[in-house]
């Protein structure tokens, strides 16, 4: 056995161990996600049987050139089941150059709960965080809710979210589930639909049930107005402002809860170029968050939050590195360029990991009755294609942040018209 064979064999084994550590943890999250699914069903029935004195609430909707979707979104907000005299729907017109402002004014004339706030001239188009920081200054309600301009929540979504803040004073924020309104549009949206349902069932529901930790998404969440004021608003340098804010909420002594029965529907990218830009923003945003808080991890008050941040780092980089190393070694070994001298059931390990992935996906899809044969086939294809593309995204984001040191600039996801009567199921 040569020294090269020993080194490559050890490298391969380390890669397999790292992969299986991540896979094992995700399996645990799947199990706890299932427990959360069962408990949430009971919790929803309990909430439905209660009556609440709902506090005042303002929905904030940042809107930058959203003429294709804003009417549908605001109309869905007007259908929310919430005391009329305690709800305000504020659309933050963030320097739009299209008909966004006209549409909002038209809707405001039809429903006095709808309010237009124009970002001052010269300050628009600087990102979602900036728009929210300007908008929150106009709010005097006890609770704020955040929705993206393409969102159409179910009528009960808001009341379910706010009910948890009423029931649990230790909660600083509560988030719900988002689903893909255009899931059947393209192969890409079918992949995204499976990905987002799996992500939320494992990394939101599973983490909440296991660690009492959840991360704010960009939409469909509520929080206490006093809390965001104490925290000084949103970080305008963060591309993933929700993740950054989540950490500060926990460090401020509050928790964030995930409830899967408060549902909104949103648009997902239908073109690969749009998807790449969106996911680049996500990865670069998380790079910023990790860089901002990494040195403070040993001093976190919430030790589980410290573990969670390290897991995020591992998810993007350790897991990524392990996959790259093992893929390369698998290829060079298959081509007989090198040999893996250490004995072991490596083929069986790979096969088991694949079937475990499929099993986890089917379990999480079953919560929304999407565990179909067609989705099973898509999950198989997704494993060998879509999932592998994340390696490209991580490399590209790393290159932009740490080699070229490009400035982080907010990029809005492109919108499109959704046909009336689109089924939400």
Describe the structure.
By secondary structure, this protein is of the alpha/beta class. The chain has a single domain (1-410), classed as Spore Coat Polysaccharide Biosynthesis Protein SpsA, Chain A (Alpha-Beta Complex), CATH 3.90.550.10. Helices cover 55% and strands 12% of the residues. It is built from 13 helices and 8 strands. It has helices at 3-48, 70-78, 100-110, 128-136, 157-167, 187-211, 225-230, 241-251, 272-293, 303-334, 346-366, 373-384, 386-403; strands at 57-63, 87-93, 114-118, 143-146, 152-153, 171-180, 221-224, 255-266. Strands 3-2-1-4-7-6-8-5 form an 8-stranded mixed beta sheet, with helices on both faces. Helix 3 (100-110) links the parallel strand 2 and strand 3 (114-118). Helix 1 packs across helix 6, helix 1 (3-48) packs across helix 10 and helix 11 (346-366) packs across helix 12 (373-384). The longest helix is centred in the N-terminal third of the chain and has 46 residues, at 3-48. It is globular and about 70 Å long.
């Amino acid at each position: 056995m040569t020294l090269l064979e020993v080194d490559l064999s050890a490298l391969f084994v380390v890669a397999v161990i790292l992969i299986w550590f991540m896979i094992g943890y995700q399996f645990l999250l799947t199990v706890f996600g299932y427990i959360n699914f069962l408990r949430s069903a009971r919790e929803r029935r309990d909430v439905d049987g209660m009556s609440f004195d709902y506090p005042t609430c303002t929905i904030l909707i940042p809107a930058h050139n959203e003429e294709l979707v804003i009417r549908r979104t605001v109309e869905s907000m007007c259908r929310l089941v919430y005391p009329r005299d305690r709800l305000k729907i504020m659309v933050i017109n963030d320097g739009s150059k299209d008909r966004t402002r006209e549409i909002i004014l038209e809707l405001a004339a039809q429903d006095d709960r709808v309010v237009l706030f124009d970002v001052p001239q010269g300050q628009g188009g600087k990102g979602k965080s900036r728009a929210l920081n300007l908008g929150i200054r106009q709010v005097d309600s006890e609770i704020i809710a955040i929705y993206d301009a393409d969102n159409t929540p179910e009528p009960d979504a808001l009341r379910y979210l706010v009910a948890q803040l009423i029931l649990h004073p230790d909660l600083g924020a509560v988030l719900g589930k988002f689903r893909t309104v255009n899931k059947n549009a393209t192969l890409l949206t079918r992949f995204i639909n499976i990905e987002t349902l799996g992500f939320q069932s494992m990394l939101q529901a599973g983490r909440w049930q296991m660690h009492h930790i959840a991360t704010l998404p960009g939409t469909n969440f509520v929080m206490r107005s006093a809390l965001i004021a104490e925290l000084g608003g949103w970080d305008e340098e963060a591309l993933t402002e929700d993740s950054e804010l989540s950490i500060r909420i926990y460090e401020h002594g509050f928790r964030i809860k995930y409830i899967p029965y408060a549902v909104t529907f949103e648009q997902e990218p239908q073109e690969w170029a749009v998807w790449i830009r969106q996911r680049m923003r996500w990865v670069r945003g998380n790079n910023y968050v990790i860089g901002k808080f990494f040195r403070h991890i040993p001093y976190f008050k919430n030790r589980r939050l410290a573990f969670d941040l390290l897991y995020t780092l591992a998810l993007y980089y350790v897991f990524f590195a392990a996959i790259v190393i093992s893929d390369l070694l698998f290829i060079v070994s298959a081509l007989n360029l090198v040999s893996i001298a250490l004995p072991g059931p490596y083929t069986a390990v790979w096969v088991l990991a694949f079937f475990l992935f499929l099993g986890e996906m089917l379990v999480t899809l079953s919560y929304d009755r999407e565990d179909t044969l067609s989705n099973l086939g898509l999950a198989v294809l997704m494993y060998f294609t879509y999932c592998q593309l994340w390696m490209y995204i991580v490399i590209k984001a790393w290159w932009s942040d740490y080699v070229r040191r490009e400035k982080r600039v907010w990029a809005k996801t492109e919108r499109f018209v959704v046909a009336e009567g689109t089924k939400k199921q």
